[in-house]
Amino acid sequence: MMDYKMYLASTILTEDKVITYRLLSRALKVHVNVAKEMLYDFHQKQNAKKPGTIHATYLLSGAKRPEDTIPLNGDAKKDGEDDYMLSSPFMSSSMPQLEEGTGESSVLSITLVREEDLEEVRSQYEDISSIHIYSLEPHPLKDLQVLSDATRELQLLTADEDPLKTAEQYGTIINKNVKRRTARRPPPAVVAPATSTSKASAPSTSKAQAPAPAVKPKAEPKTQPSTANDFFGKSKEKSKVTTTAAGSNASSKESTPAPGPATLKKESSSIFKSFAKAKPKLKREETDSSVVENSPMRDVDDEDEEETYVPPVQSKEIVESDRKARKEREENLIRMMEKAEETEAMEVAEKPEKEVTKKEQSVEPEKETAVVSGGRRRGRRRVMKKKTVKDAEGYLGMSLLVPLP
Amino acid sequence: MALPEEEGNLLRAPTDQKYVTLERQPSSYKPLETFVLEKEKHYQQQYGDMYFLRLTKLKPAVEKIAEETWDGFQIAGETVRKVDRVLDVRQGELCWVAGTIYMEMPLKPNILDDISKDHWISAPPPRQKYLSPNGGDLIMLEDESGRLRLVGTPLANEMLVTGCIIAVMGTENANGDFEVVDIKVPDLPPQAERWHTSSPPTNGTSRKKIKLDNDEDEDMDKPSAAGKKIAIVSGLGFSGTNTEHSLEINLLMEYLLGEALDLATQENVSRISRLIIAGNSIALDNEAVSHDTIGNTRKAHKKYGYDSSAYNPAPTAHLDNFLAALLPSMPITLIPGYTDPANVSLPQQPIHPAMFPQARTFGPMPPADGQPKEAGWFDTVTNPWDGEIEGWKVLGTGGQNVDDVFKYVESEDRLGMLEAMCRWRCCAPTAPDTLWSYPFQDDDPFVINSCPHLFFAGSQPKFDTASIEGPDGQEVRLIAVPRFTETGEIVLVDSETLEASVVRISVS
């Protein structure tokens, strides 16, 4: 019974929190009426020791004096809001209105009031039927509406409780006849923390994933010697990568406008070009042209990469020769795709490997597009100038600019 | 300063007092499905049929009353004569005829105005009243044959709106206008006694009946103590942008759960057997959808999924939390209103329970084989809605019907409009003229066939209540339920006397 003082002292004085009787009853698993008394007791004793350390709000109910008809919120015109047009001047004539039966019906007024205004509000009441402390707080509340946060806090606190079972403990009015479906979905209140845990688990899974690819190249270095080399080599010296990228850009036949603020992805696509020239000899020209045209398009969003990856089966039929090399690449790709989903933190470390991914991925589709429509497109597309632009929110996007003569 | 009594004062140190668990009174509840539309709705029909359906349904009733009062009525030696059709009225002949009122008002919204809206720079704000100040309004009586313009002083004393069925007595003057001498309305429909279709709970009332017979004195204070209450709240106005009233709503929740205040109040609250939410639970958030400078909604560039800039789920989530907190303790009937996420035209169909992922677990159980469908603990219903609560026939609306009648008449008296609707036997007379409505073909459900005991309308500017009586001893309790966001008021209706009281929640 005494531990409530400890709890209140730590919550209000140490943690600087506002606590309502409902929060207290949930935290200590006591009846709400007991919680109200605890708040009062603590308030009295604490302020006796050190006056003014704790402030309270009171909830009171009863009958107000009839004379003070409080101006209702609705009567006050809100600023700047359009009012209805009154088309008729005769409104005033009908204004003296009959009060039909409103007077006799009883009104129970419930008011939440700050400690400081308590006496004033009390004087408005003709008869106070009940009064209790609603909340305690370390500072006087400027806006009482902050107390509604307590309800939200309470929902989190009791998210895993079944209200039907705990109602009795807290003094909520129970209802025997309540009908609830048995197959109960988890309420969103429970879902909310669940998502946060999933968020928390996300990095952990990525951590779990992260070592795996790092191990893989070690485990099978013979099967993918080039990739592994790339991986380790590039991670050592990043600057080299960029220089090679720039070089490949310059050496490319097409007069690709080298974009100034080149992103990682952009870079990778230009790296790919050097790769593409070196690797598949087949249909070189078309490949090259489509590289310039297609690979930057892909950069716009990652989902396309997944989509374009899908049809390698088709391309197998077309390109019979280097099936073996392709298989290897596919394996590579799958692994890389997994990596692509990793967190940003990992991305930095894996920069070089990702670049390889991009290279490999773009090899696949571009052959197909080259077969289908490469030639025709080239002529038309070439007049457009592409530029990577950064908008106000910091997003990078492509824009097609002035057509070249 | 009045000091609180000892028991109501919780300003004391914790005692060893054991608090008894309070149990809520059961609610006897039988919703009717008068206003439920079929799943497959057709909108090809003409609206005109509704007026003729209404006229054929109500004409016999009003003619009966007119005949009783005006039979043998003489003016200057001329006896009044019944005329069957409006066009059969002859000039200079004293007669009476029944028909539908049509108000020709220049300021009434017109479909042709909507077309010409394209040419306006900005549309004028909606009018509060349709009445024109210079008397440009014409009152006409119409039936299937034609229309007749009504003139005369009795019209000024009677509340008249488009769509109500009345009988008028008088003569046609030289201008071809009908000089009205007297007006009759269908008046209250026949009323069934309490517990007409639903059966009373066996123990509660029968015991009281015995008491009534045995001991008069004991009975004097017993019913008030044993009486259950029905809580009606309207205009909770959950908003995604404005949290001004969230504390008041929380206090309301705590009050209804029986957690706030002292033991005596909590015991009173435990007698509230049901909560009815009468419309406008969700506020109209114009800011929810982002607009560009010209006023067009901005299309965010998104491929799939919903656009969070165009849809704000917060209001329904707050409402769901509110409902889910109350439902373990009390059953709730949810009537949609003008601003709620339901269809706009009357009868508004129930808000889909999928909007409330938590509260829907209290929804109706799928009926077992052969069993009749049972009303859910959490019942989302139509607007207007009727049903039986504690044996009383209850008819309630979200308030659009009253708000629309309000635009036709000079009066500000909301209760008078509720009363007039009862006496017209039509709970939405202005539908389908200025109140959007489903084009009914076979039946006009807005016609009140059996008189309710309790008739309420939500979203009214202030609380008001009265009891009216009909010619055959019918008694109807009328309640204008105020908007909670503006007044902080909820209405408690006594289940025995149907008397209404108010609980006002405020934060100072």
From TrEMBL, chain A:
Keywords: DNA replication, Nucleus
Protein species of origin: Hyaloscypha hepaticicola
Extent of Basic residues compositional bias: 375-387
Residue stretches of biased makeup (Basic and acidic residues): 337-369
Compartment(s): Nucleus
Residue spans of biased composition, Polar residues class: 241-255
Pfam families linked to this entry: CDC27
GO biological process: DNA strand elongation involved in DNA replication; DNA synthesis involved in UV-damage excision repair; nucleotide-excision repair, DNA gap filling
UniProt xrefs under InterPro entries: POLD3 (IPR019038), POLD3_sf (IPR041913)
Region entry Disordered, spans: 176-325, 337-387
GO molecular function annotation: DNA-directed DNA polymerase activity
Stated name of the protein: DNA polymerase delta subunit 3
Biased composition (Low complexity): 191-216
Cellular component, GO annotation: delta DNA polymerase complex
Taxonomy, superkingdom: Eukaryota
UniProtKB/TrEMBL annotation, chain B:
Location in the cell: Nucleus
Record's catalysed reaction(s): DNA(n) + a 2'-deoxyribonucleoside 5'-triphosphate = DNA(n+1) + diphosphate
GO annotation terms (biological process): DNA repair; lagging strand elongation
Domain DNA polymerase alpha/delta/epsilon subunit B: 230-465
InterPro entries on file: DNA_pol_a/d/e_bsu, DNA_pol_D_N, DNA_pol_delta/II_ssu, PolD2_C
Similarity comment text for this entry: Belongs to the DNA polymerase delta/II small subunit family.
PANTHER family: DNA POLYMERASE DELTA SUBUNIT 2 (PTHR10416)
Full protein name: DNA-directed DNA polymerase
Natural source organism: Hyaloscypha hepaticicola
Taxonomic path: Eukaryota, Fungi, Dikarya, Ascomycota, Pezizomycotina
